[in-house]
Amino acid sequence: LAKTTQPISMDSYEGQEVNITCSHNNIATNDYITWYQQFPSQGPRFIIQGYKTKVTNEVASLFIPADRKSSTLSLPRVSLSDTAVYYCLVGDEGDTGRRALTFGSGTRLQVQP
Amino acid sequence: ETGVTQSPTHLIKTRGQQVTLRCSSQSGHNTVSWYQQALGQGPQFIFQYYREEENGRGNFPPRFSGLQFPNYSSELNVNALELDDSALYLCASSDWLGPTNEQFFGPGTRLTVL
């Protein structure tokens, strides 16, 4: 499984755009990139998944460059309720995701008023 | 649609005891995975069940065992509890044949071993 590297923590203010970058240098051809969000004392929640270029849903965008060795989760106009830990995961959609998710330590995002 | 539920929410045990944690998967999901999350760390995969069979296992000793029932609910059993077993135990359900690898997590059971 590809190892991921994320910043340990980030700070932002309400209304700002937050970009969290994840490095995954040894990503395999079949690997997808998935982001989860976790609030204290709750289970992680799926945010977004992508393979290449850009993916957007109602809560976030995911930018993946051509070499796929990194990815950036973009949260537009964050609010206090976006304070959480964000995990970047890399794995084969046909295998890892349905067998196990490998979580790193994640990025702790703190949003200030 | 009912989400993933876990019971109990909190549990206190002493070293050497045994514990059973329970999980009801989301409606329509046939796969259940269990994770252990220590304070300040990301969840660590324990094992996964698909159609009542263990389908994968992480780096956990045999005293961590599980079951999946015909209705796809699941149990996690831990024998001979150790202090380091204190953690949040998360259950996640998914559809093996689903279009994505999204897993749906329950709220967890907080286990404290004294």
Helix and strand layout, with pairings?
The complex is a heterodimer of chains A (113) and B (114).
Chain A: E1 9-13, E2 18-23, E3 31-38, E4 45-50, E5 53-56, E6 61-64, E7 70-75, E8 84-92, H1 96-99, E9 107-112
Parallel strand pairs in A: 1-9
Antiparallel strand pairs in A: 2-7, 3-4, 3-8, 5-6, 6-7, 8-9
Chain B: E1 5-7, E2 10-13, E3 19-24, E4 31-37, E5 44-50, E6 53-57, E7 64-68, E8 74-78, E9 87-94, E10 104-105, E11 109-113
Parallel strand pairs in B: 2-11
Antiparallel strand pairs in B: 1-3, 3-8, 4-5, 4-9, 5-6, 7-8, 9-10, 9-11
What class, by secondary structure content of chain B?
mainly beta
User: Biggest interface: chains and residue counts?
Assistant: A-B, 24 and 31 residues
| CA gyration radius of chain A, whole angstroms | 13 Å
Order of helices and strands of chain A: EEEEEEEEHE
Shape of chain B: globular
Distance between the termini of chain A: 38 Å
Oligomer: heterodimer
* Count of alpha and pi helical runs of chain A: 1
Poorly predicted residue ranges of chain B: none
Average predicted confidence as pLDDT of chain A: 88
Give the strand order of the largest sheet of chain A, numbering strands 1, 2, ... along the chain: 1-9-8-3-4
Largest sheet of chain B: 7 strands, mixed
Main beta sheet strand tally, sense and closure of chain A: 5 strands, mixed
Instruction: Give the strand content of chain A.
Output: over 45%
Residue fraction in strands of chain B: over 45%
